[in-house]
Amino acid sequence: MSWREELSAQQQRYYDEGRYQARTLADEMRDGATKHGEALLVFHSDTRPGAANVAEMHRKSLALAGALHSLGLRPGDAIAIQVPNWLEGALAFQAAMLLGVVVVPVIHIYGPAEVQFILRESRARAFICPRAWRNIDYVERLERLDRSALPDLQHVIVLDEDPPSGCLSWRDLEAKARPSFAPPHVAADDVCLLIFTSGTTAEPKGVQHTHNTLLAELGRGSTMPTHGVTLSAFPSGHIAGVLGLARLYLNGGKTILMDNWDASAAARLIEEHRVRNTQGTPFHLHGLLETAAASRRDLSSLTDYLIGGANVPPALVEQAQTAGLATYRCYGSSEHPTVSSGTPSDPLDKRAGTDGRLLWSYKNRRRNNSEPGWGGARPIVLPPSMASDGRKSLLWGPADSDFLYTLRAGPLQADSFQTRGPALAPPTSIGESTDLIGANGDRILTY
Question: What CATH architecture is 20-206?
Fold first, then answer.
């Protein structure tokens, strides 16, 4: 069976089991505006602070979808957004989802070379960015783009009242808004997000997500809480930032988004807004604990801290526990946002020493490199939490990604905790280190 046939069969099984549904993010956003329209979004920024409730966001985004439509964007077209966690970026994200346009998030620090590559590869028809933010002059970066190599790019929208020649301002875009715009039909299996990896081994690769793969992550298989005040500090161009932005339309709780990480500001926001849930890397958590101790900020409301994105020292989780923060680890990637995760109620040794349990859409999979279609990649041993079968999102990535696979014998138990590291790999001909290899033979990372 080819991977396309296998994907089709797996999709159908997920529909049969109710894991996939005929609903889109646009549907969830529309319903969220009705169910919890008063839920507040706070955009914390020294540069561009803002706030809006979910109902107001939906109303403005629907009109903005009409503006994008008037520029000629149609379902399946791509729009690149290099905007920090600001109101305008959130509106553009939702407007694109309503219009059926594919969002291409761009990390705010990416310079002309990276942006040129992403705009070219995505064939983006529109690009939104600030004029300047912090120490970054985005207009100067725009001027360094080779527009002759970007034939698909027709519109550049700059968040400034005086945009460069040939660009639109945000006000120009809003002037084209159509409050009565009727959005087109969008299918649940349509691609809605194209997010580029960091290019650890080669050029960045675009990972495609559909409405179904993102909704599966956001709700149907998630361990994240669905109530209480949430603080989101991940950059909007990162998959975790995208999920934080999308999640706020679904859950109905107050959400605070930070455009720049500042541990002192985060501690103050947690205390003032009685934040219950947040996520971060070890860098974020370490800074938060140090700042809270030094400033005597009250973090007692924070009962749920999901940590990942880098190697997590068990001692840091134990330190957080001493401070009263129930911290638990997870593992994921752009292709698989959350492969495994713990919960706040897990025993401390499991929260500190493992990456939690495999989520519903992942399983251990044994592959043989002699199978057709595997490109001759040599067999490798993966730690269990890496041995996912790609069913939720990886097959929607570039064709040369394919599955990750493992030679570890025997299935994992659904409730087993996943640890990572070279000690887990049994002796192989590869040697002491373990290479994680894609089906095209590229080395992704070494343990």
Answer: 3-Layer(aba) Sandwich (3.40)
